[in-house]
Task: structure prediction
Amino acid sequence: MKRRDFLAGTAILVLSTMNSRATVISGGLPWTPNAGSPPVPVRPGPWHYFTSDEGHAVEALADRIIPPDPQTPGGKDSGCAVFIDRQLAGPYGRSDGLYTRPPFMPGTKQQGAQSAKGPAASYRDALAALDKYCQSKHQGKRFPELSDQEKDDLLKGLEDEKVKLEGVDGKAFFAQVIKDVQQGFFADPLYGGNRDMVAWKMIGYPGARYNYLDWVDRHNERFPLPPVSIMGRTDWSPKT
Amino acid sequence: MSRKLPKKDVVIVGLGWTGSIMANELTDEGLDVIAIERGPWRDTPTEFPPNYAQDELRYRIRHELFLRPEQTTFTFRNKMDQTALPIRDWGSFMPPNGVGGGGVHWNAETFRFLPSDFVLKTHLTERYGASFLPQDMTIQDWGVTYDDLEQHYDAFEYLTGTCGTAGNLSGQIQEGGNPFEGPRSRPYPNPPQKQPFSHTLFAKAARDLGYKPFPQPSGNMSQAYTNPLGLHLGPCTYCGFCEWFGCGNYSKSSPQTTILPFLIRKSNFSLRDNSEVIRIDLDRSGKHATGVTFVDTGGVEWEQPADLVILSAYAIFNVHLLLHSKIGSPYDPAANTGVVGRNFTHQTISSVNGFFDNKKFNFNPFISSGSIGMCIDEFNGDNFDHGPHGFVGGGYMGQVQTNGRPIQSTLVPPGTPKWGAAWKSAVRDNYLSTVKPGTGVHGSFYSYRDVYLDLDPTYKDRFGRPLVRLTIDFHDNELKQNVFLTDKFAEIIRAMGAHTVDKQYRKGPYDSTDYQTTHLNGGAIMGTDPSTSAINRYLQSWDVPNLFVMGASAFPQNPGYNPTGTVAALAYWSAAAIRKQYLKNPAPLIHA
Result:
């Protein structure tokens, strides 16, 4: 239950019935001190959703989707697997808020996803199928143990539907991983990816600044300030 | 069994733009008004303050401020012989939820429609002949004219502080404005916003090609503004987090910034949030509404009696409530009878992305606002001769890029792999030098016999009521229109200096997963004939005279502009009819 539904004061009357959370607002704008719903930053540490093997596989996938280069870390070191893990452990992984009533019937592409399975369960099944495929085709090696070339060949095969995973739509799964890895790379670092704002530095995006009044008519000039996250910047904290 | 609440003069269903306008107008008349809103109270300090409003993942990707499909959704199919399936996650449009409605998270593009848009059928038939129109096209005149609405457009623009350059002041064409627009009685209340580099470059290229570019009319403030209700808006900071987001700076016109703080202080107004109206109640005659029944979040059913019912939910939910309340005859496309669900339309959007040399062009795409941009109107409505082209309709087009948010704005030239080292370096090399207009071509969507709304036979909402079923596909007329407009748009992007243009034509079949706009229209359209419209020219139900239905559900077809200016003008127009005529004699304002 949200705090503001309990607001006291003249403005709000909570209906006097059991279980009711509807309120009547009149006389003035509802207001309560310190109301708000700021985001909770992801903490580093163990996987929340993935098993250790799953986590390693997603890190390896992230590093082929966004390979490291001398200037910018890859998907793994920028935290994309941590991002996906925390997302799958949360409302997104469970399809919270989506319409999940049956019947589930196959439809056209234009009708959108019709699976009863949420993203978390889909990842689990697809990663297991990927592991099985690798071990059978590469003498018992798992995906992270393949060479970069072998990994890329496999992923291109998924994309072109030349590689088939057992019981899983490999093409759709890889498309989902690409989307999730790239979201983690570019989202605010508070979600676990884009560590130290590496992606924003790479492209020249200044982040959560929220005010460019002085810059809107400075045309064709490079914006000079470094990025800032919703959490601030590490160099804003006092050094110990 | 529902519990009965004390009777009110007026009950308003949904407190977005039209509900807020109606509440303010009718409380001015001294009436006792209650609004019932399905979603929560929303305000800036709690939900989108400037220290965390700029969160692309939370608000844009995960849809924090929108309706949850689990609460209610729609089923969808392209053709009448297909089985409709539920839209399980939002795609081609995004229904709002909560106080302020879509006004909280819109871009605030505040257009007027063309005078000819309101008399479309008559106008096109006179100019091109009836045989020029596709046989199954069901366009109609609105029953209201631009001249009827002018003062009401003006009222909304001054309420919301619209920023722009007039193109037509009382018939005199003005330099720098849109020369095709209908006459305005006075200038915009605020000058246009400043334009970033790429938007300025578009205007120059368009001018060089012989067009007349104008700044998009904007509800993001170019300067501080105090509206006629005494409410203050601050200047927009071009933060690049407008549509899908609430504004942390009180710089975007919304019910929260322009009406609610004034309205809520009136002793004859109250609001009940987190309460979903499930039915309009009728007396035994079926010709008179007695009020509405709603359910609170505890699942308790309540009856709110009232003398006058204003239906002001999102367009398709208006139709949902009419169908469930059995008001008006449901549309039957096979027999071509009935009205509720008829003439459902959306929009025909496309765009052209331009890739520029990064050594010469730096656009800083993150510096932008929701309704910034330079547009041209040469290819909108009937502003050009359609005779040689074999289609009707059109749209404005422009560099209206609203942001450079990196999850969705890191484009790569066509042919680049979707992942890997080549993708990564292409993202790095193109981010600052790419033009991504978004809704660059904002095309019309005219109405057809087989594009309509009804109740789904299989899927239900959380109250066990059938969902609304959308049957919608693009017709050849709109696809032809889109190719013509997109090609014209690409010429301008090319003329800006792009080395590569990527044309994103709108193609059939209509795809429920691909975002266009949230401009769904029709289903409870206005008109002059009760056999082809659900409401009369004052938005009064033909069947239940003490029920007025607001919103874009009234549009007989969708012109090539954003709808909110017209939706708001219609609300003021309807409110004036209620105040001046209906309250003196609560009866049908038009006798069919």
Summary: Residues 1-20 of chain A have pLDDT under 50 and may be disordered.
